[in-house]
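Researcher: We plan to redesign the surface later, but first we want a full-length starting point. Tokens attached.
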């Protein structure tokens, strides 16, 4: 009884509300990222794009979601039913879990309490993200294997090989950044970039950012690294046997991963919620937090646009090209970047 009385229920309520807001925002942004992608593709190909459902086709994502929801759900007779259902659920779960450690903004003052706009500020935030992202490949592998379809299994194996290959280069590129920051906490990394006389980390790690960004595209299975899916050219990939909202979960997870990857890139290399040329001391705490959140999401949307721009500009890699770039190109560049960073740090000591 005493334990229940000592619990800070206001703290739990704050976190529950923040979790609900972040999950809702992630789903809405992922939903309308599909609309943005179709409009951007149409613009680049001199087409109109979605224009039927609502003004300018703005209700098209809702129509697509309803279509998937009401489609017939088909589970192959010879599939492993439990794993067949678990695959898309795991892909969606891991996509959503990564948002827990991202600082979405500064603190706000409400009802006499200082509320940080971050679900969990843990001192191993980057390791948490890597751990959760590594679990995401199981959603692909389980879905491909449980389908009992050789084409789905081959696509899932392509996806697992791709993730393993590019996670190495991504991890090594981050080691150089961590040498400079000295912290694994995303909140601390953002606060360091906001200090007077300190630039965003992109100024100190341009090569590390480039490697991280390329690997992020590969981790999200975005073109030109979309061999695990490959749409029509390679039998549609690991979710070939899926329909209804199970297919929707896989498709949604890709766009949520793109959104979260953009948020992580902005946090690590572009100051997070830092707004340049704005003196936050002249604003109230809540106004400064609002400006920071707007700046953060503006940067995220820029990177989402870049993800889409690249998809509709570059052709897909052959599989041997994809492996060569990962093992013979990016890993060597990441190692060189790490050694150069270490040498500079030792020289300055």
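Model: Full-length starting sequence:
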């Amino acid at each position: 009884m005493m334990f229940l009385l000592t619990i800070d229920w206001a703290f739990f309520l704050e976190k529950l509300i923040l979790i609900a807001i972040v999950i809702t925002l992630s789903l809405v942004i992922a939903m309308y990222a599909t609309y943005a992608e179709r409009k951007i593709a149409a613009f680049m190909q001199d087409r109109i794009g979605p224009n039927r459902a609502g003004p300018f086709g703005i209700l098209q994502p809702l129509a697509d979601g309803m279509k998937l929801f009401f489609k017939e759900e088909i589970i192959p007779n010879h599939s492993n039913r439990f794993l067949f259902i678990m695959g898309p659920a795991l892909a969606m779960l891991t996509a959503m879990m990564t948002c827990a450690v991202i600082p979405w903004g500064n603190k706000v003052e409400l009802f006499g309490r200082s509320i940080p706009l971050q679900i969990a500020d843990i001192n191993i935030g980057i390791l948490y993200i890597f751990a959760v992202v590594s679990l995401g490949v199981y959603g692909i592998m389980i879905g491909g294997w449980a389908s009992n379809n050789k084409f789905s299994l081959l696509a899932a194996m392509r996806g697992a090989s791709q993730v393993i290959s590019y996670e190495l280069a991504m991890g090594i590129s981050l080691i150089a950044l961590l040498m400079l920051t000295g912290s694994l906490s995303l909140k601390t990394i953002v606060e360091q970039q906001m200090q007077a006389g300190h630039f965003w980390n992109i100024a100190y790690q341009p090569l590390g950012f480039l490697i991280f960004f390329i690997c992020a595209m590969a981790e999200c299975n975005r073109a030109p690294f979309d061999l695990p899916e490959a749409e029509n050219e390679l039998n549609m990939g690991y979710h070939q046997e899926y329909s209804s909202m199970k297919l929707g979960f896989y498709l949604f997870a890709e766009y949520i991963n793109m959104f979260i990857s953009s948020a992580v890139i902005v946090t690590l290399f572009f100051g997070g919620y830092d707004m340049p040329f704005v003196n936050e001391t002249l604003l109230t705490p809540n106004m400064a937090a609002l400006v920071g959140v707007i700046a953060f999401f503006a940067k995220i949307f820029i990177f989402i646009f870049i993800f889409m721009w690249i998809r509709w500009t570059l052709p897909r890699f052959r599989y041997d090209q994809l492996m060569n770039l990962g093992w013979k190109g990016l890993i060597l560049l990441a190692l060189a970047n790490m050694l150069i960073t270490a040498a500079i740090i030792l020289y300055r000591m």
